[in-house]
């Protein structure tokens, strides 16, 4: 419509363009499947992730070989503000994977895109299934209720040292109209199955008042 173009899109045939689109769609679905493997996800994000290589491929095909168009596209993307919740580390990594696939297919390197996707998929599955990066025991929150006249400083340290690899008093608050104190510890058990024995010993020290042990509040994995 606009005559000649500096972009390489003018030299790309319809069959080649459709083949690149097909590769982007298939590899985008693979990238989305890799992201979903043993990870909480939403349908909207997965669909967007699957379509991202196709979108990036179109952009790269249009600006390939045209420096002016490339600078213009960079300026447009700089003006866009993504109003969404902060992503986790895996979300961001998956977006980069989808963009890398779109870059490769947009420049016509279909075999490279397939090999790269396969390598990342295998590496991702291997890391998820292996114990690499996994803590021995997840951190838990221990809450101990004590009477107001009990000097709690160090009274539980000996018991906690026997059953945990690490423990730290993170919060102290009053409860029951000030007649009781609630101590909150961040603990990491030495091994599973020791919780009951530890709680039984702690009950002997806090006057058999309420004790609870549960999962620590989830922390978002951000980059």
Question: What do these coordinates show?
Answer:
With 223 residues, this protein is of the alpha+beta class. It contains seven helices and four strands; from the N terminus they run H-H-H-H-H-E-H-E-E-H-E. The relative contact order is 0.12.
List keywords for this structure.
alpha+beta, 223 residues
Helix content bin: 40-55%
Structural Rg: 28 Å
Low-confidence stretches: none
Q: Strand-and-helix sequence, N→C?
A: HHHHHEHEEHE
Q: Approximately what portion of the residues adopt beta-strand conformation?
A: 15-25%
Shape field: elongated
Strand order of the largest sheet: 2-3-1-4
Number of helices: 7
Gap from first CA to last CA:
44 Å
> Would you tell me the overall average pLDDT?
82
Q: How is the main sheet built? A: 4 strands, antiparallel
Let me know the number of strands. Answer: 4
> Class by helix and strand content?
alpha+beta
Element layout with pairings:
Blueprint: H1 14-36, H2 43-63, H3 67-79, H4 89-106, H5 110-129, E1 140-147, H6 157-163, E2 164-175, E3 180-189, H7 195-205, E4 211-215
Antiparallel strand pairs: 1-3, 1-4, 2-3
Helix pairs in contact: 1-2, 1-4, 1-5, 2-3, 2-4, 4-5
Concise structural overview:
The protein is α+β, with helices and mostly antiparallel strands and 223 residues long. It has helices at residues 14-36, 43-63, 67-79, 89-106, 110-129, 157-163, 195-205, and strands at residues 140-147, 164-175, 180-189, 211-215.
């Amino acid at each position: 419509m606009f005559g000649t173009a500096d972009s390489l899109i003018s030299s790309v045939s319809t069959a080649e363009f459709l083949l690149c689109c097909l590769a982007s769609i298939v590899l985008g679905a693979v990238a989305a499947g890799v992201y979903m493997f043993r990870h909480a996800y939403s349908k909207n994000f997965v669909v967007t992730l699957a379509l991202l290589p196709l979108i990036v491929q179109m952009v790269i095909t249009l600006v390939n070989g045209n420096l002016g168009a490339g600078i213009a596209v960079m300026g447009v993307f700089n003006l866009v503000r993504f109003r969404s919740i902060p992503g986790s580390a895996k979300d961001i990594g998956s977006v980069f994977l989808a963009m890398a696939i779109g870059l490769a297919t947009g420049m016509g390197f279909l075999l490279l895109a397939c090999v790269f996707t396969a390598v990342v998929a295998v590496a991702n599955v291997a890391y998820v299934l292996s114990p690499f990066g996994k803590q021995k025991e997840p951190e838990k929150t221990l809450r101990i209720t004590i009477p107001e006249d009990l000097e709690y400083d160090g009274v539980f340290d000996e018991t906690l040292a026997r059953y945990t690899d690490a423990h730290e008093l993170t919060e102290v608050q009053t409860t029951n109209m000030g007649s009781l104190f609630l101590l909150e510890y961040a603990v990491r058990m030495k091994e599973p199955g020791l919780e009951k024995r530890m709680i039984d010993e702690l009950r002997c020290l806090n006057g058999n008042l309420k004790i609870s042990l549960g999962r620590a509040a989830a922390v978002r994995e951000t980059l």
